[in-house]
Design a protein that fits this description.
By secondary structure, the protein is an alpha+beta fold.
Length: 708
């Protein structure tokens, strides 16, 4: 590579990187000055999981760490953020907000370097422009999307680059680069194993078909295997350096096959296939109910059934997320196939493309992996046609201009739907300013050892802003841990309060189980059942209605009830609306929320085929008519106090309607939902003074302290 080409490559990288950053600043421009998204004079982040890594970085900066707080102080994202915060002259909030944009945009570097290895740097430039703004990649690397995704494609793109260079040049330096990149990728993202394994498998397949006696391929595989082993990072780095050093000795070629055999045995010994199977079970082979095989054989609802990113998606969304438009996507696939025939080493991109295609059956989150490869495909097709035009027109100045205009127009055409998406994708921050105010106030009330009970969606932000423990969060939300929290939120106050105390104490107790204690393998609810002398969970839950003896109180418990939970309350209820012994649903709770309504001639249209005859007190849902028991109106008076009004209609009914005037929201719900802890404490401020006491009562969030 000559110096002029070096300069050209870096110019293209710089331009693509600036373009990527500029596109991500559109969101900042759109919400500039919008105070509801700002805390500590900076925009808040817009992904729940980001608060997990932020908690770890925060604790590293403060030098304090609460035992069993689940703070990720040893994770790469938190450590890198900590280092940035120590070095850069910006606030912590600014760093975590802008990190995704600046790190995610780095994907343009390996893409342009890959194209440069084919001596088609312009092809890489166009591909990089598309990849950095493609729907799914932008969505997961935009400003505020502070998560591992900001490097989850950058690092494998670098692995692809070094593998292609290794294939083309047979230079041993690229073997070392590949191994170090794999180590870095695993350190950054623990679930990177699937993609690493796919790269490895493809190279093994190539070796078996074409070059079974090529020592260079074996050397590459050996270092990849060592890099992928489940060993401490320093141990892996030491092994890689020592093995790579041995490659410099001429005689090593005679022993490379034995060394490959040893590395393969060690790879299998350290659970080579285990992570693959775990990923497939989690995202492909999903069951609605998970069975706890130990003890009572309890059945729990699977959280994967409620996670949108793990569900099957329509083809149009699938194509849009990868390329911005289904036509662009289809042409990208054609272009990639053509590119493989022209540059065979691009077949190494199949693992990323294949993992991206898994999104069609396994969930939209995977589409991000296919973005760079698809971008290469459409870019190659554009330049293939451009080259044909130049040949057709002959080598003259006009052919150059025609080719340049063609490439420019095509580039704008493929970028346009993606940029349009960026402009319209006005995703909000995780919490509003008013919600964070509540948590900041709570932080000065609670102890770091206290627990806040809320749904798992809010676990990480609660821990970050209030510096307190939670029962569930974005990483701890399996069916067995969700069941008690769901039970607390959706049951009457008397049994909910007991479960809150039980679940808190059993959560703490689990941190101190010995390795050989059978209780550590059982769910909290099963341990409660057995400890109270029951063999049937239903009998134990029934006992909560009686005056049972609760565990000794070791810390305070707070109940966090946000208005935003109304939107997911039916989903929350699903996790405890289950007979754990049989796996069957217990009841069919009725809950309907809407802020779309209009009144005409005494008929209240609540949207979606739901009507309420105000005069007759009758609710019509589709073709079914149901009398309404009570009609409630709640609103905040001038003094900020909640005002409640009730009109009795038909006491033989099981359905009530609540008009939350201050929220412009109607609720239609049955008695079970009406009497739930969440509805009574948040909607009505009706709390049992023997069980709870209000701590913070605001329209956005209400926090109560458990008194038992």
């Amino acid at each position: 590579m000559n110096k002029s080409l070096d300069k050209k490559v870096w110019i293209y990288i710089f331009l693509a990187y600036i373009f990527s950053i500029a596109m991500r600043l559109i969101w900042v421009y759109q919400f500039n000055g919008y105070s509801n998204f700002i805390w500590n004079d900076q925009f808040m982040i817009n992904t729940n999981d980001g608060y997990f890594w932020a908690q770890g970085a925060r604790d590293l900066l403060s030098g304090t760490f609460t035992p069993n707080s689940l703070s990720p102080i040893d994770t790469a994202t938190s450590v890198v953020t900590y280092l940035f915060a120590k070095i850069l002259p910006f606030s912590f909030e600014s760093i975590i907000f802008y990190m995704p944009a600046f790190l995610g945009s780095l994907v343009v570097i390996p893409m342009i370097l890959i194209a440069n290895s084919f001596k088609r740097v312009e092809l890489g430039f166009v591909a990089a422009l598309l990849a950095c703004v493609a729907w799914s990649y932008y969505n997961r690397t935009m400003v505020g999307y502070y998560d591992t995704d900001m490097l989850n494609i950058v690092l494998p793109a670098f692995i692809l680059w070094s593998l292609i260079l290794a294939y083309k040049s047979r230079n041993e330096s690229y073997i070392l680069f590949t191994a170090l990149e794999i180590v870095a990728y695993r350190w950054w993202y623990s679930a990177s194993y699937s993609l690493e394994f796919a790269f490895l498998s493809l190279i093994v397949l190539y070796m078996l078909i074409f070059e079974r006696k090529n020592t260079y391929i074996y050397k590459l595989l050996i270092l990849m295997l060592f890099a992928m082993m489940n060993l401490p990072i320093l141990v892996k780095l030491l092994i890689i350096v020592l093995v790579y050093g041995s490659y410099k000795k001429v005689k090593i070629d005679s022993y490379v096959f034995y060394l490959f055999g040893i590395s393969l045995v060690l790879f299998l010994f350290f659970g080579g296939f285990d992570p693959i199977w775990a990923q497939l079970k989690g995202y492909v082979f999903k069951d609605s109910v998970k069975i706890d095989p130990d003890g009572l054989g309890l059945h729990f609802f699977s959280v994967m059934q409620t996670v949108r990113e793990a569900g099957k998606i329509p083809f149009e969304i699938f194509a849009d997320r990868i390329s911005g438009h289904k036509i662009t996507f289809l042409l990208s696939c054609l272009g990639y196939i053509m590119m493989i025939f022209r540059y065979p080493s691009m077949i190494l991109g199949l693992p990323m493309l294949g993992l991206g295609f898994l999104a069609y059956v396994g969930g939209l989150r995977f589409t991000i992996y296919a973005v760079p490869i698809a971008a290469f495909g459409i870019s190659y097709l554009i330049f293939f046609i451009s080259d044909y035009l130049k040949k057709f027109l002959g080598k003259n100045q006009n052919s150059f201009y025609v080719s340049f205009i063609f490439v420019s127009v095509c580039t704008v055409a493929i970028l346009y739907p993606n940029i349009r998406h960026i402009i319209s994708y006005k995703v909000p921050t995780v919490f509003s300013k008013n919600e964070v105010k509540v948590l900041d106030k709570l932080k000065h009330i609670v102890s770091r050892e206290d627990y806040v009970v809320s749904w798992w969606d809010y676990g990480y932000p609660i821990r970050y802003y209030a510096d307190v423990k939670t029962l569930v969060d974005g990483g701890k939300h399996t069916g067995e841990v969700n069941f008690p929290v769901s039970y607390i939120l959706t049951n009457p106050q008397n049994v909910a309060a007991k479960m809150a105390r039980l679940d808190t104490q059993y959560t703490e107790k689990a941190f101190h189980y010995k390795k050989d204690d059978p209780a550590q393998k059982r769910s909290y609810i099963e341990n409660m059942t057995l400890d109270y002398g029951f063999k049937d969970v239903n009998d134990f839950l029934s006992s909560l209605k009686t005056d049972i003896k609760l565990p000794e109180k070791t810390r305070d418990v707070y109940i966090y009830l946000p208005f935003r939970m109304l939107g997911i309350f039916p989903t929350v209820a699903r996790f405890s609306n289950l007979d754990l012994m049989s796996g069957k649903s217990i009841r069919k709770p009725f809950f309907y929320q809407t802020n779309r309504y209009r009144e005409k001639n005494g008929i209240l249209n609540l949207a979606n085929g739901v009507f309420f005859d105000i005069q007759k007190g009758v609710l019509k849902v589709g073709n079914q008519k149901v009398p309404v028991k009570n009609f409630y109106i709640t609103f905040y008076g001038k003094n900020g106090k909640l005002v409640k009004q009730k009109k009795s209609l038909n006491q033989n009914s099981n359905i009530s309607i609540i008009y939350m005037k201050s929220y412009n929201t109607f609720l239609v719900l049955d008695e079970d939902m009406l009497n739930s802890l969440y509805i009574q404490l948040f909607v009505f401020d009706n709390y049992d003074k023997n069980l709870f006491e209000p701590v913070i009562l605001s329209p956005a969030v209400k926090v109560y302290k458990l008194k038992i």
